[in-house]
Amino acid sequence: MKLPTLLITVIVGFSLNVTTVLSQDSSKPDPTTVKEAIGIVKTRLERQMRRVSDLSAEIIRLDTRIEREIAYIVSDLSQVGDSRDSRTEVAKLKEKVTAGLKRSIEKYQRVRAQVNLELQNTQAGQTRQDLKQDLKQFDARIANRVDQIVSISQSLTTQKDFQAYNDYLRDTRYDRTHHSEINRLKSMEKTQNKRVTQVTDKQRKDTIDALKRSIASLENQNKALASQLNSIQYAKQSDIIQEDIDRNRQAIMTRDAQISTLQTYQQSFTTGISRRAAKEKENLIRDAATSLKRDVDTLFRHYTEFQKERKQQNGLMQQLQSLQALLP
């Protein structure tokens, strides 16, 4: 934000005047001059606070829309399954959506790591309270994505004990002779179930393996954090470190429960849909994904800008406090 030349001159002139006076003797600067500078800083601060508020509102709006759209896609997809007509189309669509949710987790984790570094840097220009709140928001989104992946995994077709063959009685007549014989046909249900589970069993295993890797990573993080907690070097950050350890422990417990749920092979109820319906659903999700990508990119761009503006706001607050401290 650029100030008019006159205001810059006033602030610079005031700073020079204060420096000169303090260097000559220990008396305080003229209160009138201080009050003039305070008025200017207050105006800047008010404008900066409006800017931060506007960005915050836009971030909340985008975040709300993103979460609503993803929740709808996951819920809708979790209620359908494959039929003999769609073969494995729905299962493959679920695989694509799950991959997209995993990419979303990775993006949130990268930004979260940057925020965590800011929190550990005492000169970052942002309050610990603000940054901790940001971390909680990112943690909530990551946890939500994992829950959504598990929800889709629970809806995947599981192996069922269908009869392998269907027997039927066939009558034949040759001249005056009547014959009856039992013929066997492969069960279409058994064939379809085997076809789909070749895809879904792998998907479920991949999700379970990913959850296990997540647990291993969290456990390794806690070992490193525990080492820092006992170090004098990180004494000032002990509260942050302990919060991370507690968060990781809770996440580990949640992941363990999710693995247990998936390993029970209790498929949630789904309705088989046709191949045409599966294709249209894929088109719908593709359109939504394109829109969501734009929103997510905009959201993180706004967040980066929001951080910069919040730093400037905090700087102005500190400047105002310093000026007010000069008044008698």
Task: Name its key features.
328 residues, 75% helix, mainly alpha, 7 helices, two-stranded antiparallel ribbon, single chain, two-stranded parallel ribbon
Structural description of this entry:
There is one protein chain. It contains seven helices and four strands, in the order H-H-E-H-H-E-E-H-H-E-H. With 328 residues, it is mostly helical. Strands 1-4 form a two-stranded parallel ribbon. Strands 2-3 form a two-stranded antiparallel sheet. A hairpin with a 2-residue loop joins strand 2 and strand 3. The protein starts with a helix and ends with a helix. Mean pLDDT is 85; it is low at 1-26 and 164-169.
Produce the secondary structure layout.
Layout: H1 5-24, H2 31-78, E1 80-82, H3 89-120, H4 128-154, E2 165-174, E3 177-186, H5 188-229, H6 238-263, E4 271-273, H7 275-324
Parallel strand pairs: 1-4
Antiparallel strand pairs: 2-3
Range of strand content: 5-15%
Taking the alpha carbons of the first and last residues, their distance comes to 31 Å
Silhouette: elongated
Poorly predicted ranges (pLDDT <50, ≥5 residues)?
A: 1-26, 164-169
Order of helical and strand elements: HHEHHEEHHEH
* Largest β-sheet summary: 2 strands, parallel
- Radius of gyration equals 31 Å
| Helix content bin | over 70%
